[in-house]
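Dear colleague,

Thank you for sharing your sequence with our group. We've completed the structure prediction you requested, and as agreed, I am returning the results in plain text so they can be pasted directly into your records. Please verify that the sequence below matches your submission; if there's any discrepancy, let me know and we will rerun it promptly.
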Amino acid sequence: RNHIPYPVLDLNDPGATLTVRDRATAPRRTIARNRWRFSDAGHAEMRSGFEPGKIYEIVYRSKDPLLVGLGPAAIRDFISFLKHGGPQTLLAGERRYLKHAIGWGVSQSGRFLRTFLYYGFNADEQGRRVFDGVWTHVAGGGRGSFNHRFAQPSRDGHPHMNTFYPTDIFPFSAASQTDPETGLTDGILARALKANVAPKLFATNSSYEYWGRSASLIHTTIDGRRDLPPGDNERLYLLAGTQHGPGSFPPRRNGTQHLANPNDYRWALRALLPALVAWVKEGKEPPPSRIPLIARGELVPPDGIKFPRMAGVAVPARPQRAWRVDYGPRFRSEGIVTKEPPEVGKPFPVLVPQVDADGNEIAGIRLPCVAAPLGTYTGWNLRDPSIGAPEEIFSMVGSFFPFGRTRQERGKGDPRPTIAERYAGAEDYLARVRAAVQALAGEGYLLEADIPAIVEASRKEWDYSMKQ
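Please find the predicted structure tokens below.
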């Protein structure tokens, strides 16, 4: 992924091993040392070539690990400085300090903030709260390699890539829970709550995070059998029918079997930001959490999805899973990995949002694409056969399955009603869009000022859909 690796200590090290496996949980097959070599301190090559779609992994000795743990301390100290100043600074002299600070992180930086909170960095060196609010976006149940020896922050744990790195590891929820398998008790906010420095917490996730980042574990019990209600200072939101990054029309393919998901969820983020600010500054309650619940049948095991049977479309058989991973006895206490590859134990149960007869999710913040749909919007897509492993999930990209325009054009093997069977015409469709956005705006999930722009975007989507 074009990131800089830790350098190989000895290019001719006979103890370095290269393995290959078909998927994350498949057995590793060792490739003889004389069949491959290090071409330099950061690359390897094999005479016979590498096969697309396989997972190759090299375990080797390196040197000079970076002091990655300095990052959380630096952010802690800088934010504390902005709020409280220092003895010899312009800010201190002018007494112009920030009253509140909000941390916002997307994907990797969202996982960083979860890690930041977990390790207790939200208390500065004087024991004062650092961030008054923290918003983690599309971080799912993940943390990451931000504070251990030989850490690689870019390793992020997907269904078919970067698996078994210390990313999606216990604990997952803000509240402390006990893992019945290991006996460990912990929570993301355990240290912050103990020190009385817990922030107001927002977590927004796309549908992809439930399929590719174990997001259900942030609001279920560890055994996956019951809902775990968000805490009083916590709001959780599923952006229904979305992928990791905001989509856009027209939808395209890029290494995927299906069109990418074009659902643009940024409208909801624009409304939730002032809600978080008002919660932090004024104590004004934000919109309630919107997440799929086990008790309502909205959150189910992957094989319980009632996705419509469409020709040429298969629901992923192997979503990403979080595992009980043993990196050695020094990892939790000292941040030192002594088992590489790690020992992998039992997986944690991962659940995904249930869908309606169209395949669209029934819970969460249902933006117009889902509330008044022109197709089916999912958080998952599959790898194109040309890049190998076509049964595996393509990282971070969802799917779009457009409805047929008329009954005569409905594809064979597609049980979903067509656009003409759903709407009397463009104005009927746009009226349903307006009703959906007005309802969401009334509940605080969209801004009233954005309604005209959302309706206009929907009009363009209608025109696009009717011309295809």
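Summary note from our side: The first strand starts at residue 17 and ends at 21.

Kind regards,
the structure core
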